[in-house]
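Table S7 (text form). Paired inputs.
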Amino acid sequence: MDSSRAFVIACLSLLAVLPAVWGQQNTPRIGYVYPAGGRQGQTFQVVLGGQYLDGAMGLCVGGGDIQAVVLSQTKPLTQRQFNELRDKMKELQERKAAAMKSAGPGGRQGASQDSNDTPVEWTAEDEKTLVETREKLSEGPPNRQANPAISETVTLSVTVGPGARPGHRDLRLVAASGLSNPLVFCVGTLPEFSETAERAVVAPPNTAGQPYRRQAKADPAKKERRISLPAVVNGQIMPGDADRYRFAARKGQCLVVAASARELIPYLADAVPGWFQATVALCNAQGHELAYADDYRFNPDPVLCCELPEDGEYLIEIKDAIYRGRQDFVYRIAVGELPFVTSIFPLGGPAGARTSVALQGWNLSTTRLIREPGDDETRDRIVELDHSLPMSGHPPLFGVDTLPECVENESNDSRETAPRIALPTIVNGRIGADSDADVFRFDGRAGSAVVAEVTARRLGSPLDSVLRLTDSAGRHVASNDDREDKGSALITHHADSYLSVTLPTDGTYCLHLNDAQGRGGDEYGYRLRVSPPRPDFELRIVPSSVSAGGGATIPLTVYALRRDGFDGDITLVLKDAPAGYVLSGWAPAGQDRVQVTLTVPPAPTQEPLSLSAEGRAVIDGQEVVRPVVPADDMMQAFFYWHLVPARELRVAVSGRRMSRGDMRLVGSVPVRIPAGGTAAVRIGPAGRWFAATTQLEVSDPAEGIVVESVRPVREGVEIVLRSEADKVQPGLKGNLIVNAFSAKPPASADEKAPPARRRVPAATLPAIPFEIVSP
């Protein structure tokens, strides 16, 4: 090999930072947490069910003040393991029988002789081995019908600190292979009760000779348990199961029963409709049903409120609506004379200002509060309403914006009584009664663009809005019922309306707003924005948990949610990140989904690190900065996908130190590649090189762009990229994800022919932003 080629290979070897961690395959995945929360100041056991959980080391829980210690781990037996254990148990039983056979009057128990007069010993250690083998076999043979996604379990002892902040947290498992996806973990203040966890046992073969089956062991105590109020009860629903809780209460108490099920695990990939559809019922001591709920408005998790008719015993029952069940059908129920907010008004207020908010609900100690502004409020945001009330369930949501605001005044249900509004504005209103409609007038000029957008369902209102625009003569101009907002992934019905219209003539226009079902009431609030288009964007980065070896580069996906016609370039950067962390790539104009990369430093971290990123774009001559929200792309019911937001982007760096430097792009980006021509990009190392990598390849979807050559330069290596004129056109933009491969000899060589070398994935380069330009 000539010296030039040797040097090129040495330069390329910097890409082989950690061949075993190119992507995040086989990192731990958790499908449920049980119980999905606990009380301040308590220590209790938690079981996590999932896959690839080997080497579990602890938990990473956002918000701090929660400690965990791993107690045990189980995983399904393979068929080979089961057969070996069965044979071992048979051998132990035979040996024990032989040792016990001669035990009797005058004999020594625990010893015997075989046919060759060799003593057979049976010791305490043998007895222990027999018991352990029997326990392992009790887990049963491999169950091909079991769901592998939740087949492994880890049991931990969890301590919630007495000062832990109440509310929802992101919980992740830390294991040898990396960091798991997050699931919801709740910190509460009420006493907690948990049903006995389900355990799989082996059923004996039936008379027809059918194979063993795994069955849920019946637990009589699970069917009905006594609790004292107020409380939170935790449980799991198995197939055909119904859990009941008995308690004493007084006449006149306003009892609130608020269940969390879908809220804990938003989407189940292999279940229809895609979540645990819980139902709750309140019964008296004789079993007569007093109240029932299978949802709360548009939320699948049920909530019921009932004024108790007499002193005595009552029952709460929870089950799945169609009697399904599994270990990941986990629930929490808050029950007691608890405060619960059913509606607020207004649903939002000016950013940076104090707002007086009226409350309606059950067991409230006040009906009005002052909402204090946050420190970093910007336009068009949804936040949790600040309050000091110990609410059951989530705090109400509150919209903030920088536009002028006003409050709707009745009566405005016709063109003749419609108030005149000046654009831009946000109207805070309510569809106050069944069949009500709110109408607003504004003046417009021909050719001007106007956007009308309702925010109601996204703020917790049951309003299913319909918007209709008419001209001065009452003629129809445009209308809209529902519009999907991919940034609101947990909403089951996207019921908010959106209109974007170019006005046809000068004159007065009317906006008509009503409920699609003809319903109304105090809780049917809305925020109506009427303005010229306000180009903007939101960003999501997937996944929210990243596991990497020291110095590795990991591909991620960024989704750009563009608003009001914004179609510009968005640059992406990490915010206040420690040295060595680099986010490479951009979201170019016209693209809603792009691949980017995250490069991590060589040294491993002691615990998963929280990173923040932001996107920047120039809109109307001004730089606009928006946060990049971590999320996970979750499948619902075999088909639908949703970007479910997480509270943090967590990164775990593991493995020994592989390099003292980092890979980085040298020079300006995006790299401009002429159509049918070439362009060079440089990758600059700052540490040792490892001779292993021999080939680079551009991954999909960059069809028509290939790596033409690689050569050493002073800064590291220079990669020449070539675009194929018949496959790409000027104006194409994106990120090139370039993968490196090492070549290794095959396991066995054919003496008659030279052995073909195997390509082994070695590493990924930082994403290369590019643009195809005219030659």
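Next pair, protein 2 of 2.
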Amino acid sequence: MSWLRGVRARLSSLLRRRVAETRMDEEIAFHIERQTEKNIRQGMAPSEARRRALLQFGGVDRHREELRDVRRPRLLAELRQDAGYTVRSLRAAPSFAVTAVVVIALGVGATTALFSLASALLLRPLPVASPDELYMLQEIRSAGTSSSGPEGQRIPYARYEAYREGTRDMAQDLAAHALRTFALRTEAGAQPVPGAVTSGNYFEVLGLRPALGRYYATGDEPVAVLSHRFWRTHFNEDAGVIGRVVHLDGHAYTVVGVAARPFDGSSVGLLTSVWVPFEALRAMDPSVADQRVGMIARVPGNAPDPGTGARLTALARQIPAESPAVTIERAYFTRLTGLPDGARGGVMGFMGMLLAAAFLVLLIAAANIAALLLARAVVRQREMGLRMALGAGRARLVRQLLTESMTLFLAGGVGGILLAYLATAYFARIRIPGLPIAIEAAPDLRVLAFALGVAALTGIMFGLAPALRATRTDVARALRDGGARGSTAQARGRSIFVAAQLAFATVLLICAGLFVRGLQHGLSQDPGFHANGVVVGSVDLEPQRMDEAAARSFQAELKARVSALPGVESAAWASTVLGSGNHTTTRVQTTAAEPEAASVTMNIVDEGYLETLRIPLLRGRGFRAADDGSATPVVIVNERLAERFWPGVDALGQQIERGGRVYEVIGVTPNGRYVELNEEPHSFILFAAAQEFSPQMSLHVRGRDDAALIHGMRQELQAMNPDVALEFAMPLTRMMGLPLIPQRFAASLIGAFGVLGLLLAGAGVYGMMSYQVAQRRREFGVRIALGATARHLLRLVLGHGAVIAGVGAFVGIALAAGAARLLTSMLFGLRPLDPVTFGGVALTLAVVALLACWAPARRALRVDPVVSLREE
């Protein structure tokens, strides 16, 4: 339908041109008439005077060009005049100007700060050469492995090497990378450092240049590259770091380079402090031979060929899979954005929700200013009437008033940009314990253009209505009354803007209330274990190249050492920390009710685990030291799994098969919330650590002093091996709070927006009622003189405010009811239409509206009828 759009655009252009020519013809005719009248006054006959005037202007077409040449400088002169008049007008009302600019700055600042954060996460390209040429190579797999992370993003390194050879004709080059936490040996003990293992061509594919030294070019050099941030914080920007040896996971690496700022890795917001080549690591530690990686391809020309997807899929199916159970369905290129495809949609939705809340604050602020402009228009009615009496057209006055509103909004936009810089600086300082996250969200040119554009757009939208109202003036009445009273239409307009503020504030308050109530509801749920008084710390022995017997001995000795620390009640190992958001699944089956293998959540724990976390047993017993590799394999299941596999039958003594191995059920625990607080009960199974080995385990310690326990764990671990780091060491309650960070952030931010919106809306109600009481002094004086009581006047003023508040609350509740349904997944089982939240917000609005109306109502009672009538 492009031809139809072209025809429509052409017709629209011709229509606009015809309208412009018609207006110009009217202006030419006006000049001809004036010249004709001038010739008649000089004694010419009317026909001669007309002929001379026509000759003088010499034709419409030529004069049109002359008028264009005259009107351009005149328009610029008028714009300069409007700007000067605006400055003088706002200087004469400094309190109004400052209030308006501050209110707008709050709204624009909130919106700009969140847009800057969204831009950093979703829009800003990675700081690499030609980022639009970079793609991720991904696979879609069926019957995949149990590795964490979105499927298709973790490919065995051996497959990467085959892909690199097979994509020579599809991509310029292909690099591999995988995030990894290294244990950096320091004088104070091993310190966990976020790093990455990469192919030798990683930096070349990204097109990066080092700030110091060089990058490694092959994968077999035992060298390391530091990030600029890590070099600054840990090495004090010492240029002598080049050539220094650092020990990571007990292996020696020579520092050969420092990455240039601001590159901190190819994942947005996730810091990488050190990079090492894969081949060198594999030579020192053969256990990483099956390292799973992500792949980055550079495809010149900004887009792969249309047939690349089919060729990649064919290549993927030719490369042997690492397991017969893995089937490759498809391989494809997707843009390298710094966020996994699976996470991008969630981030977009979350940031969209926060941006919507910020826009509501901006709309509240803009509506507040529009109400102030309408009130100011009433005061300036005499001025508008006088200017119209002197020949100013309505369009000219509207342009003048729009210039004033645009000046206020643009000044507020500049103030909002400054607030956005402060807010994003605060965002950059936010740190999450145990997670190497830092988001550089300082506003860039795109964000600055967005802020000024939003300010200009809201200035036009919310400044046009007051400008039109102000110029819709009866000249005679305005000059006679002196602008003392506003029209009913203007009062209705102010009421509409104030009601809109209350409606927007209602939406914000209800959303914030739902988040807070949802968090309270989730935290009040019984997770099935007691986290208070427990600290955890993860220990990864895989990089130490220990065999199973040595690793088991190490874990047993560390547990014994920590158990002997003062204040320790008990300690136990587990492969997964409950409530942390992490989980591992496995497939089990029974020959009873469900012969097919079922996916269940699992954990590997040792004896004492149930006691340390105080998980009760409904039936049976817990693990014992005797449940070792030589004993019968045993498991503990929860009620949900027992009911699923053996409905109506006691689960004790039943058998479960996993990977060809048969296990006996020795205990049943209650259902719990093992992964997240908002999950429904699901099947869960515990395996004995003495029968299932894992080199990556977390030590759970119950005691009296969290800080002392963590310090003691670090000391004992350093004494045993200075190259093993204690990772994610924190109280269990804090670790359980990590999955709640998005909800907490949203609740606090939207709550702050809601309070700000409520204050602005309350100020709008107060300002409107105060102004209306001042405008109706004569009416109140007459009512008092005719015998009106104080109760009658209070009911009159408060009733008007109650109507406005009721309309705003009703509209806001209706909008919030629709918005709340979009938040269901973040409310931890709380109903979106929670009556406590909706009722509490309605009551809060009623109280705020009453307080805002009370002072103006009391002022109405103090009106002296004699004085008010004499003033009239």
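The two ends are 65 Å apart (CA to CA).
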